[in-house]
Write a structure and sequence with these properties.
alpha/beta, Aspartate Aminotransferase, domain 1, Aspartate Aminotransferase, domain 2, 2 domains, four-stranded antiparallel β-sheet, 16% strand, globular
């Protein structure tokens, strides 16, 4: 993607200084570059589910394909009804989006403008940064505490111009985690006129002992928005579907400014089917748990520093990450450099299958020896 802007265009300063999102390198692009077949590439860059989607979601996707000539249901009744039953919240408390990032952006659109600021932690998900930038609001970045959220510092940074607080739990790209009781006290302490968006894209991967009930908090706190996605544990990254949960007045506001037909019929039906496939979700979590252990052991063998993660990726310190990444690419392994987050010595490596993890570890060892 080109980043060249016509200098004669009269752009607002916050748009002119915005940066394009840089996703993980596509498999097909690398295959062309190094002259191999796409199936020879291992991609562990984008926190995707190595199992793909469930059979139930695939069947629903195929069935929904017959309706491509018609617009989807703008109100996403199939998905919202399924979520309402699963989460035990009224459908009027739900906001569907083109991935949870859509809902993150809706919150920024609703509450931010030039002169107001959004608070988020250092090393936060880049979608927070981009959402704030698009509104022309001020970024107020709170220094991290051991690569995670310093909630006390975020509270201390709130002032009269604070209009939105973003928190991700678990965090991306660090995999950091805030225990539920600590997070609940934080949300209770934020002034009720300031919305708090709690991004839980990796919530399903949390070990049972770490589970907390954020939806119960939504019932208590009218300023809380919880966002989740079907891109990670449910294996539907290519369909781009997520959702937010908030009390009805706040959900209605976000739905009012939501783009029309933001979720395709295929994505809606596949997500609703995936939601009920508890066996697939359990298997995905088991594979992830084993994969994390495999990566940790491999990094220990290589003598590398890494951050233990509650998500489906690990941040590992390799020194010159740009060089290490280039050497991995030449071996057909795609991971994620995170220099854009201010972490130039680190790589984020997603959990893959056992074979993919092993190949990545072997390639990383070779890259660091070169």
């Amino acid at each position: 993607m080109t980043d060249t802007i016509n200098p004669t265009l009269r752009l607002p300063a916050h748009i002119r200084t915005s940066k394009p999102y840089q996703p993980g390198k596509p498999i097909e692009a690398l295959a062309r570059e190094i002259g191999v077949e796409p199936q020879a590439i291992v991609k562990l860059a984008s926190n995707e589910n190595p199992l793909g989607m469930s059979d139930a979601a695939r069947a629903a996707l195929i069935d929904a394909g017959a309706e491509l000539a018609r617009y989807p249901d703008n109100d996403c009744h199939v998905l919202l009804d399924a979520l309402s039953r699963k989460l035990d919240v009224p459908a009027t408390w739900l906001v569907a989006g083109n991935g949870s990032e859509c809902v993150l952006g809706l919150a920024a659109t609703a509450f931010l403008e030039p002169g107001r600021h959004a608070l988020y932690a250092q090393y936060s998900f880049m979608a927070f940064v981009n959402a704030v930038q698009r509104t022309g609001a001020v970024h107020k970045v709170v220094p991290a505490l051991e690569y995670g959220c310093d909630l006390d510092a975020i509270l201390a940074a709130i002032d009269d111009s604070t209009a939105l607080v973003y928190v991700a739990n678990p965090g991306n790209p660090t995999g950091s985690f805030v225990p539920g009781d600590v997070l609940e006290r934080f949300i209770a302490a934020v002034p009720s006129h300031i919305p708090v968006l709690l991004d839980e894209a990796y919530y399903e991967y949390l070990p049972v002992d770490d589970h907390y009930d954020s939806l119960a908090w939504v019932r208590r706190f009218p300023n809380l928005i919880v966002t989740r996605t079907f891109s990670k544990a449910y294996g539907l990254a290519g369909l781009r579907v997520g959702y937010g949960v908030a009390q009805p007045s706040l959900a209605a506001l976000l739905n009012r400014i939501r783009p029309a037909f933001v979720v395709t019929r295929q994505a809606e039906c596949a997500a609703a089917a995936a939601l009920d496939d508890e066996a697939f979700l359990a298997r995905s979590c088991a594979v992830n748990h084993a994969g994390l252990a495999q990566l940790y052991a491999g990094f220990d063998t290589l003598g590398l520093n890494y951050l233990r993660s509650r998500a489906n990726f690990v941040l590992v310190q390799v020194g010159d990450a740009t060089t290490a990444n280039a050497r991995l690419l030449r071996q057909g392994v795609i991971v994620r450099p995170v220099g854009v987050y201010g972490l130039p010595e680190w790589l984020r490596i997603s959990v893959g299958t056992e074979e993919e993890n092993e190949r990545c570890l072997a390639a990383l060892g070779a890259a660091l020896e070169s």
